[in-house]
């Protein structure tokens, strides 16, 4: 059984952890993702993860609450650390060695981000969870995913969503939306499709880092992707 991707960065939204709830973390969803990650890790895939914090707090909400944008962004980064801790705990409960790494120093609960150390963890078969975004305001967790994926020389970014790929329009709103199996970076830009925020997308484009957008809720999708099956939409250079 040959692997199509040896080292991957999985991008999960914080909202993905809510399940049917309107806020917080649904334990069943946490286990669902942990078991999928364990599946591919046992195949020999080196797995890094960036998870958002939107189920707890979104920095962009700050403007409506009277909180300054920069302060709000830091609050959002701390939310990603909470999600990272939860995912780490669940993964270790099912026997997966993990390392939680934070871009903001908090040595009691997470390692500081040191690129070479993170790569070494991956080489030793540990799952690495990158939290606290980039450590700087004004950047999304999409940007953090693109940055870390390039830094660790990942083969691909796997962007888990609620839909099964990239469409010409939002398939949840437009029943006539058409799905792409493959699409180039240039065409995504020309059609104005919102795969990632533009900072993240440009970083991937400039470094020829492919992105697979897929339905993360379907049980076997992660495994199928790393084995080379056509799942979701591939964004290629």
Q: What report would you give on this structure?
A:
It is a single chain. Helices cover 37% and strands 19% of the residues. It is α/β, with parallel strands linked by helices. It has one domain: Carbamate kinase (3-Layer(aba) Sandwich), CATH 3.40.1160. Strands 4-3-5-2-1-6-10-11-9 form a nine-stranded mixed sheet, sandwiched between helices. Strand 1 (7-12), helix 1 (27-42) and strand 2 (46-51) form a beta-alpha-beta unit. Helix 1 packs across helix 3. The mean pLDDT is 94.
SSE topology:
Elements: E1 7-12, H1 27-42, E2 46-51, H2 62-65, H3 69-93, E3 98-102, E4 111-112, H4 115-123, E5 127-131, H5 141-151, E6 156-161, E7 166-167, E8 179-180, E9 182-184, H6 185-191, H7 198-206, E10 211-215, H8 221-226, E11 233-236
Give the biggest beta sheet: 9 strands, mixed
β-strand percent reads 15-25%
Q: What is CATH's topology name?
A: Carbamate kinase
Low-confidence stretches: none
- What spatial form do the alpha-carbon principal axes imply? globular
Category from helices, strands and their pairing: alpha/beta
- The CATH level-2 architecture is identified as 3-Layer(aba) Sandwich
Element-level helix/strand string: EHEHHEEHEHEEEEHHEHE
CATH uppermost class: Alpha Beta
**Number of DSSP-assigned strands:** 11
Radius of gyration: 17 Å
Q: Going across the major beta sheet, what is the strand order?
A: 4-3-5-2-1-6-10-11-9
DSSP helix fraction: 25-40%
Instruction: Tell me the number of structural domains.
Output: 1
Q: CATH superfamily, called what?
A: Acetylglutamate kinase-like
Q: What is the number of helices? A: 8
Tell me the distance between the termini.
Answer: 27 Å
């Amino acid at each position: 059984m040959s692997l199509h991707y040896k080292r991957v960065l999985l991008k999960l939204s914080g909202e993905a952890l809510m399940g049917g709830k309107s806020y917080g973390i649904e334990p069943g969803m946490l286990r669902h993702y942990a078991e999928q990650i364990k599946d591919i890790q046992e195949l020999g895939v080196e797995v890094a993860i960036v998870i958002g914090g939107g189920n707890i707090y979104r920095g962009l909400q700050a403007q409506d609450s009277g909180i300054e944008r920069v302060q709000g962004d830091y609050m959002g980064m701390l939310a990603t650390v909470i999600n990272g801790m939860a995912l780490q705990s669940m993964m270790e409960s099912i026997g997966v060695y993990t390392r939680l790494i934070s871009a903001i120093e908090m040595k009691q609960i997470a390692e500081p981000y040191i690129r070479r150390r993170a790569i070494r963890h991956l080489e030793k078969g540990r799952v690495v969870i990158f939290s606290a975004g980039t450590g700087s305001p004004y950047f999304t967790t999409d940007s953090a995913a693109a940055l870390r994926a390039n830094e660790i020389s990942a083969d691909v970014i796997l962007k888990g969503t609620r839909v099964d790929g990239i469409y010409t329009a939002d398939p949840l709103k437009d029943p006539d939306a058409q799905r792409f199996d493959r699409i180039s970076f240039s065409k995504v830009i020309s059609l104005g499709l919102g795969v990632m925020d533009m900072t993240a997308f440009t970083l991937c484009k400039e470094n020829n880092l492919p992105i697979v957008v897929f339905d993360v809720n379907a049980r076997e999708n992660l495994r199928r992707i790393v084995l080379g099956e056509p799942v979701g939409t591939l964004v290629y250079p």
